[in-house]
Amino acid sequence: MSVNGSRVVSVGHYQPEKILTNDDLAKMVDTNDEWIVSRVGIKERRIAAEGQKVADLAIEAARQALENGGFTAADIDMVIVATVSAKDLCPNTACRVSDALGIGAPAAIDINTACSGFEYALAQADMAIRTGATRRALVIGAECLSAVTDWEDRSSCVLFGDGAGAVVVEGTDDPELAISPVLWGSEPSMSDVIRIEEDVPFIKQAGQTVFRWATTQLAPLIEQVAERAGLKVNELAAFVPHQANLRIIQGIAKRLDFNDDCVVAEDIVYSGNTSAASVPLALSKLVQSGKVASGAPILLFGFGGGLTYAGQVIRCP
Ligand SMILES: CC(C)(COP(=O)(O)OP(=O)(O)OC[C@H]1O[C@@H](n2cnc3c(N)ncnc32)[C@H](O)[C@@H]1OP(=O)(O)O)[C@@H](O)C(=O)NCCC(=O)NCCS
């Protein structure tokens, strides 16, 4: 088969069992369900069990993506994990996932561009497949943000959750089905507005600055993502943005000329902000819901720490 691009052929996700509701949080810090729902739209989030690490979540999501596509470990020759919360520096999470799943000798890469990590990772896999360096890739976004959350800071602890999403990507000879060229970039002058640093290893952010940036700057970039796929936003079947705040998602969607039947992912309500995991998690649930027809265009867009952003259009597997 001649390869004219790559396409997402299966999806999977995993969330820890423990549910943390807004009422649970109200017993921990001075907050309440009304404030959280009205400011961010989150009702509950999942929290990893004691000892459960980023790699453990990534492994489960990857296993699901393999099973859902009917693949075995032998079918994969690249594993990329996007994460901002893996605490182990070596081995990287991709090697841990590969070992656990019995993937023999893959290119094994971790990427950290915070909340846009999955889209950066997907672009890397796409390019590797286009060049012939890779045949079939597992691309994963996985986070244990609970491990980098200050549980005494009500302005941040209500926002985050844990989880993982994964996709399998392989070559296609049909340009119609291929992942579109990525639009990616950053605003390094705003590096300080979201931080997890050595001396204060918890997520700290200037929430209103990020909110303003997201709601005023991103809509034109999202239109450009669609243009790179040769589409207008009103031709999209679904929009899966980073799940940072329901008001941001709805604010961006309002500025874009989506058709009434375009499905906008709002997984944040039940998952919170899971950084690099949020888009593949929401995508996997969307695909499994059957709301989007196979082959229909879905625009993915991540944004966050860095500040970084990236997006592309995929076709629903
Ligand atoms: C974080 C965010 C939800 C905060 O909402 P906000 O409307 O900006 O709220 P503010 O921080 O201005 O706080 C407003 C008030 O609520 C209070 N407050 C903060 N957290 C609270 C909580 N959990 N419960 C109750 N009150 C809270 C503040 O102390 C403040 O009180 P004051 O007016 O008496 O000083 C919002 O700014 C946001 O979502 N920003 C974008 C974050 C983002 O996308 N990050 C990307 C990460 S990838």
What does this structure look like?
This protein has helices at 22-26, 33-39, 54-69, 93-101, 117-131, 154-157, 207-228, 246-255, 268-271, 278-289, and strands at 5-14, 18-21, 44-47, 78-82, 107-111, 136-144, 162-172, 183-186, 194-195, 204-205, 238-241, 263-264, 297-304, 308-315. Helices cover 33% and strands 25% of the residues. Helix 3 (54-69) packs across helix 4 (93-101) and helix 7 (207-228) packs across helix 8 (246-255). The chain is α/β, with parallel strands linked by helices. Strand 9 (194-195) and strand 10 (204-205) form a beta hairpin. The radius of gyration is 18 Å and the shape is globular. It contains 10 helices and 14 strands. The model has no long low-confidence stretch (mean pLDDT 97). The strands form 4 sheets. The protein has a 5-stranded mixed sheet with strand order 1-7-6-4-5, with helices on both faces. The chain has a 5-stranded mixed sheet with strand order 8-14-13-11-12, with helices on both faces. It has a two-stranded antiparallel sheet with strand order 2-3. Bound molecules: coenzyme A. The site of coenzyme A has 20 residues, from helix 2, helix 6 and helix 7. It catalyses: malonyl-[ACP] + acetyl-CoA + H(+) = 3-oxobutanoyl-[ACP] + CO2 + CoA. Homodimer. It comes from Glycomyces algeriensis. Residues 109-186 form the Beta-ketoacyl-[acyl-carrier-protein] synthase III N-terminal domain. Its EC number is 2.3.1.180.
